[in-house]
Design goal:
Blueprint (H helix, E strand, L loop, with lengths): L4 E5 L9 E5 L4 E5 L8 H7 E5 L5 H4 L2 H8 L5 E7 L2 H10 L12 E7 L3 E8 L10 E4 L8 E5 L3 E9 L3 E9 L2 E4 L1 H6 L7 H10 L7 E7 L4 E7 H8 E4 L3 E5 L6 H11 L4 E5 L7 H6 L5 H11 L3 E5 L9 H13 L2
Parallel strand pairs: 3-4, 4-5, 5-6, 16-17, 17-18
Antiparallel strand pairs: 1-2, 2-3, 6-7, 7-8, 9-10, 10-11, 11-16, 12-15, 13-14
Helix pairs in contact: 8-10, 10-11
């Protein structure tokens, strides 16, 4: 199966935390946290139209300026999601600059912050000097589940849970609704080419179109353009395999306690990749607790309990410079039950 998401750390394990997720076969990406991110370069930063913030400590938010700079003058909308206070934090960043020459710029920044019982949203537009629009407030769907939906897309869903870092810190899961794999050999045997029309087919399926839905596809032979009608159910049966979707989880800055552990395990359940902060070795567990952070062993234990497929530990404290192997070994031994 060719995965739909390609993910990797923004920086090395001692650098500012962040995960970049490319949506393959498109020019779209998702970014989790906004620490220092110059290494991504302008092209990849521009692809990240949706950005998910855990909290706004400096090492998780200082990269906002880099994203803002490359996005200025581009006809796009940036969408930021995060905890209480994010709107004010973005407004404060924007107020730090003078905007008298950007009234013709098409950039819009939409910020959505999640409170226990409500969701607040504000827009900032370059065309009016990034003055905030009136805040819109909508009630959050009632639920007893600590997990809540942050973004629902036809292809995937992003959920979050609030963890204790002496302030609310959001952890996130990105889960593909289901995975669609194309059998190229069967397409070839039927005289059909792989092309953009298959993206349309996938969107029809993600949008829940019925099997008897008919659509027309422009096809090309050596001499002319022709159109062929297909029925969605027939295409699914002949050329596609639909299977469990990919799941990626991102956890940073949380203390190891009973409540946080339960929330993290629920969020990370059966994830394909579990990115988990591990600033401390377990011999410094008391210091980790005092600083509201995790140890490598605690990350491994939670990964094991959540039955994740792969664990990636990062956000190491600089006190362990030169001890990367020790931190990774401690995490993996707990994860593998050694």
């Amino acid at each position: 199966m060719n995965p739909s998401f390609s993910s990797y750390l923004v920086n090395d394990v001692f650098g500012d935390p962040g995960v970049y997720v490319e949506v393959r076969w498109s020019k779209r990406a998702l970014l989790f946290d906004l620490g220092h991110n110059d290494g991504l370069g302008p092209t990849r930063l521009l692809r990240a139209g949706e950005i998910f913030i855990s909290h706004t400590h400096m090492d998780h938010f200082i990269g906002f300026d880099a994203v803002l700079r490359v996005a200025l003058g581009r006809g796009k909308t940036l969408r930021l999601f995060g905890p209480t206070g994010l709107i004010d934090n973005v407004h404060g960043k924007l107020r730090g600059y003078t905007w008298n020459l950007v009234d013709g710029y098409p950039l819009t920044i939409e910020v959505r912050e999640f409170h226990g019982r409500e969701i607040r949203q504000t827009s900032f537009r370059a065309s009016n000097g990034f003055q905030p629009s009136e805040r819109a407030t909508v009630p959050a769907p009632p639920t007893s589940d600590p997990l809540f939906t942050v973004l629902e897309d036809p292809m995937f869903m992003v959920k979050a849970v609030t963890l204790n870092h002496r302030i609310p810190s959001f952890a996130y899961s990105l889960e593909e609704q289901f995975h669609i794999n194309v059998n190229r050999q069967k397409l070839h045997e039927a005289g059909l080419r792989v092309g953009a029309w298959l993206k349309d087919v996938k969107h029809h399926i993600w949008e829940g179109k019925p099997d008897d839905f008919r659509f027309t596809v422009p096809l090309y032979d050596e001499h002319r353009r022709v159109e062929q009608e297909f029925m969605l159910g027939e295409v699914k049966e002949r050329f596609l395999t639909i299977s469990r979707g990919q799941k990626i989880v991102y956890v940073v800055d949380a203390r190891y306690d009973e409540e946080n552990e339960a929330k993290i395990i629920q969020l990370a359940r059966r994830a394909d990749i579990f990115y988990c902060e591990s600033p401390y070795l377990d011999c410094d567990a008391e210091k980790a607790r005092d600083r509201y952070h995790l140890t490598a062993r605690q990350a491994g234990l939670m990964a094991r309990k959540a039955q994740v497929r792969d664990l990636v530990v990062f956000h190491f404290s600089p006190r362990y410079t030169g001890q990367v192997e020790a931190l990774e070994r401690e995490a993996m031994e707990a994860f593998q039950g050694a």
